[in-house]
Amino acid sequence: NAGVMQNPRHLVRRRGQEARLRCSPMKGHSHVYWYRQLPEEGLKFMVYLQKENIIDESGMPKERFSAEFPKEGPSILRIQQVVRGDSAAYFCASSGRGGSGNTIYFGEGSWLTVV
Amino acid sequence: QQQVKQSPQSLIVQKGGISIINCAYENTAFDYFPWYQQFPGKGPALLIAIRPDVSEKKEGRFTISFNKSAKQFSLHIMDSQPGDSATYFCAASSSGGSYIPTFGRGTSLIVHP
Q1: Which of A87, B15, B34, B104 could form a Cys-Cys staple with B49, CB 3.0–4.6 A?
Q2: CA atoms within 13 Å, Cβ hemisphere of B40
Q3: What is the CA radius of gyration of chain A?
Q4: What is the CA angle B47-A75-A3, rounded to 5?
C-alpha cells in the first residue's frame, strides 16, 4: 500500500496524558499536512511540514501541540496533557511538492478520544 | 474568518436525481479548487478539481461549475446513486501563498434508493 499511512487508527487517552499520532507520507512525498476534523466543523488546518522543517503552523494551538517531520521516519503530531476538547479525528495528508494545484492525499485518520 | 463557505450543510436526494453543492470564496488569490469525498471512518479522497481558467470540468457523473466573477464554484452529481452518499468538501488554495488548501465545512449527502 503506497498510500498515506496513519497510526494508530484509534487512540484513547485519559485527561492529562500524551497522545502521539504518526503519519508516513505517500512514497516519494516530502510535504506533510495535518488537519483536525470535528463533527460539523469540516477540516481545520493545523500544520504544514517538509522534511526537518515546519513551514506553516498557523493552525496549531500554541500550547500542548507540536509536530515534527524528521529526516528519517514518520511525521509525528504530539498532544501533551490532553483535554476532552482534543477529542477529534486527526488527518494527515501528503503531496509530492508544494505549490497550488498539487493534489494532497489524505490518510485514513487517527481518532483520538479523551476520557 | 471562514474563507470558503459551503452550502447546504446537508442534502437529501432521490436516486437518479441531481445533487448540487455550492461553495463561495473570498480570497481572489485562490487558483485551485478541488472537491473531496469522504465516507464514514475514512479519509477524504480527491474527487475532481478545477482551475479558474475554465468555467466547467466534467468527469463522469461529476461536474464542477466555476464562476470567477462571483467567486463561486459548485459540484453537480448527475444521476445520483446511493453509493454517492458521503460528505463532500470543497477546498481552495493559492499559488501565491503557502499553498495550503482551505476547506469548506462539508456537505452530508444522502441519496435515497
Answers
A1: B34
A2: 5
A3: 13
A4: 35
Q: What are A59-108's pLDDT values in tens digits?
A: 999 999 999 999 999 999 999 999 999 999 999 999 886 655 667 899 99
List residues of chain A with CB under 8 Å from any CB of chain B: 4, 6, 33, 35, 40-45, 48, 55-56, 91, 93, 98-109
Blockwise average pLDDT, block size 10, chain B, 113 residues = 86 97 93 94 93 92 95 97 97 76 94 95
Please judge whether B103 and A43 are an interchain contact, meaning their C-beta atoms are less than 8 angstroms apart: yes
Contacts of residue A20, defined as CB under 8 A and 6 or more positions apart, other chains included, come to A76, A77, A78, A79
CB contact under 8 A, A42 and B6: yes
